[in-house]
Amino acid sequence: MSDDAKQVLTSDQVRDSAPEGWREVAGVLRTRLTTAGFPEALDLVTRIAAAADEANHHPDIDLRYNWVGLGMVSHDVGGITSRDIELAGTISRIADDRDAGVHPEVATTMTVGIDTPDAGRIRDFWAALTGHSPADDGSLPSPDGQLPEIWFQDSEHREGRDRMHLDVYVPQDLARERVDAVLAAGGRLVTDEFAPAWWVLADDDGNVACVCTAGAAPR
What we know:
With 219 residues, the protein is an alpha+beta fold. Helix content is 29%, strand content 26%. The protein has 5 helices and 11 strands, in the order H-E-E-H-E-E-H-E-E-H-E-E-H-E-E-E.
């Protein structure tokens, strides 16, 4: 494997080189492909698996009744590389041949943030409750990719604000649209100081959530 194939791409490089319909979301190259039904979705997965084996580079695949979710990252270097871009291009050609629709707007993920002055005091509770295992940085990453990561924000209790919030990661080019939709649905903007990395929003009850992009998370 060449050194270039191990080079982690910047978010700008990913945006410029990713095939149409693929987006970086929270450091992973993602898309969703829709099909006419389950047989077509299964056929698509079979063809993608064969291409992945040939490339010796394998995506995470979520097979459902009439859609296939895909996520790729080069785990050996901890980021998106040209290997992911190339395999995404191959998958896009397979999808096009099988008349699969591409829906990057649903390539979304989320984490759960908990404000606490002492993460060590409550971490075991959340690990036991959810089945997560602590990582070296003290967060609780998803054990299988199906549950959101849980992380702890060093913070004293703030009156009028819940101690738990969601960080919803969306493609960077769709983030402003998502923020506007939240505001139109009755939300209020707490701060856009950190945009476009993240926007802090709240509902009428004061519950806070963040719309995040591939930039740094609010930690």
